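Box 3.1 A note on notation
Throughout this textbook, protein chains are presented in two layers. The first layer is the amino acid sequence; the second is a token string describing backbone geometry. Keep the layers aligned when reading.
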Amino acid sequence: MAIMRTTSCHRHRHPEFSVTYDPGVVLVEDDVRWLLGSLEEKVAAGERFADGETFQVGWVTTQIRAGADGRLVIWEPDMVQVPVAWAESVSSTLAHLRRQKDVCESVLTAGDLSFPTMRQSALVCTRLGQTPGGVMERTLPAGTDSGWFCGCREDGHDHNADGELRRVSLYEAAVRHAPEVVSYLALPEGVLLGIGGGPPVIFRHGRPLAFKTGSYLAVRHRER
């Protein structure tokens, strides 16, 4: 594990931040610098952070805790347990952020990114995760509704039948049912995609989206 810290927050009479991450999971170290730089910018602009508060990073709600050395430490959900168990790390948070950004920019632009939060809800199929792959569709988010529907691809399963759908948090949908959905959660409303068993097939407003040359999805699936 590695540790990186802010260096300028004390100039504004604010505690410095410390983050722990796994370089084997966070493959782009600049992502850690970006996170710390964002915190420094917010502090310089007058924002204040304290023990017990939350801080949103992409789709993940992180928690700020007081460290033993007077610094503030960022904790993240362990992405294993429901309800949330916290871990002193930002590894999954930054890995998810990078992957979601790269996926979106493989078919759209950075301006199309639309991060939900893990606390928002999704409508999920009762058989999600029981068979390989799935189908995802996003409508316009509203309030606590992320806009996401996540269903199975099982032939003959009627998603419109009573009792075949339920509403859960996005965190529960990803952790307990289908971790593979995480990569696609920052895609905007109007997308429809099929995942599993090969490259994802992605549409937006009925139009198929091709992988951009040299993009994350193009390279990843060319290598398979």
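The radius of gyration is 19 Å. The first strand starts at residue 2 and ends at 5.
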